[in-house]
Specification:
The structure holds 2 protein chains of 2 kinds. Chain A is an all-alpha fold. Chain A has 11 helices and no strands. The relative contact order of chain A is 0.13. By secondary structure, chain B is mainly alpha-helical. Chain B has one domain. Helices cover 75% and strands 0% of the residues of chain B. Chain B is elongated, with a radius of gyration of 23 Å. The chains are: A mainly alpha, B mainly alpha. Chains A and B meet through helix 1, helix 2, helix 4, helix 5 and helix 7 of A and helix 1, helix 3 and helix 4 of B.
Chain lengths: 270, 77
């Protein structure tokens, strides 16, 4: 079961960086808007190609700002600089939503978790001390929001006490592809694409990967998003999720293996 | 000698730098001799890099506007 109840929503964090429990700062209106918008948020807009230009500067290709950059940004935010906040929102909102989707079962709830996360960020900003990177701090707020919501609504995924990650203990590669002595019988075939950019240019490859991520058991999905998409370190992931390092690694292995299989299936069909 | 099947289960520990010195040597020795496992390792790395470059969805304009409103309220608090 979940550790800590709603009262301890932000426990386990580094001292003074704790944001106070998110309050009511206009939350209702945003939530209503989220509901009214309904399923539209699933629709991929034509702007997506534009978004990939933005995204090229985030994720693992850019593991995060330096402490000095974080500090400069925080100062601008504290001074009430709207452009700074707008930039922060543009940079993080979609990524937060992607992370939230690994915790909760539907898009509308994920939207709410992200809204609450922004409230938590604003409430905590004045006491942010920079002990962790801004990125990690924001992800931690989201994680705590998602856990709190899970306690309240029993709609999210229990996080601890389930052994080595959820889902069946699936081998990385189908055992039928090996001979009885453990050597390849059906070895990997040459992929036509040899850069990530080339793979992602194929609409279908991207869809398959997105689907494969969605199909991951929830905790594997969270670990994969944090590690391989957001470039958070193993140590920080264990810290944020309150899991052991070996456990984290097992989940990462299973998640990566599942995506590898999905991509291989697609590229070999070509 | 490490088998190919064993290698596919050790690949994450290898990439995470969590293999013992001995296992790391066995892994590298195998990779040096087995072109199929070299291909497997190459594909695994490409998968990880590709996932790392998947763009998030852009923020819908109305959500953005509402967040900016929140920021203005916060700033005037």
């Amino acid at each position: 079961m979940l550790r800590g109840g709603s009262a301890g929503a932000f426990d386990g964090q580094a001292g003074g960086d704790d944001p106070s429990f998110p309050a009511t700062l206009g939350r209702r209106t945003v939530r209503q808007a989220t509901m009214e918008r309904g399923d539209d948020i699933h629709v991929k807009t034509p702007a997506l190609s534009g978004a990939s230009v933005v995204a090229a500067s985030v994720g693992t290709s850019n593991p995060g700002a330096s402490a000095a950059e974080d500090r400069a940004l925080i100062e601008r935010l504290l001074a009430g600089d709207e452009a700074a906040f707008s930039g922060l929102v543009d940079q993080y909102h979609g990524r937060l939503l992607r992370l939230a989707r690994s915790f909760v079962k539907d898009q509308a709830t994920a939207e709410e978790v992200v809204q609450d996360t922004w409230v938590g960020v604003l409430n905590g900003l004045r006491s942010f001390e920079g002990r962790s990177a801004l990125k990690t701090w924001i992800f931690r707020i989201l994680t705590n929001q998602a856990k709190t919501r899970g306690v309240r609504e029993a709609r999210s995924v229990p996080f601890s006490g389930l052994g080595n990650g959820d889902g069946p203990d699936e081998p990385a590669v189908d055992p039928a592809r090996f001979r009885s002595d453990g050597m390849w019988a059906d070895p990997p075939r040459r992929w036509e694409d040899d850069t990530p950019e080339a793979v992602l240019l194929r609409e279908e490859a991207r869809k398959r990967l997105e689907q494969a991520i969605e199909d991951l058991p929830p905790r594997q999905r969270t670990v994969l998003v944090l590690r391989d998409i957001e470039g958070v370190s193993a140590e920080e992931v264990c810290n944020i999720l309150e899991i052991a390092e070996t456990n984290q690694r097992v989940m990462l292995h299973r998640a990566r293996s599942a995506l590898h299989r999905a991509l291989e299936r697609y590229l070999e069909e070509e | 000698m490490l088998t190919c099947q064993e290698l596919t289960e050790l690949v994450t520990d290898y990439l995470e730098g969590r293999l013992s010195l001995w296992d790391r040597m066995r892994f590298r020795l195998h990779i040096g001799m087995c072109k199929h496992c070299r291909a497997f390792l190459r594909d695994r790395k490409l998968t990880i890099q590709t996932v790392g470059k998947m763009p998030p969805d852009p923020i819908p304009p109305d959500v953005r506007d509402e967040l900016l409103d929140k920021f203005r309220n916060w700033k005037n608090d």
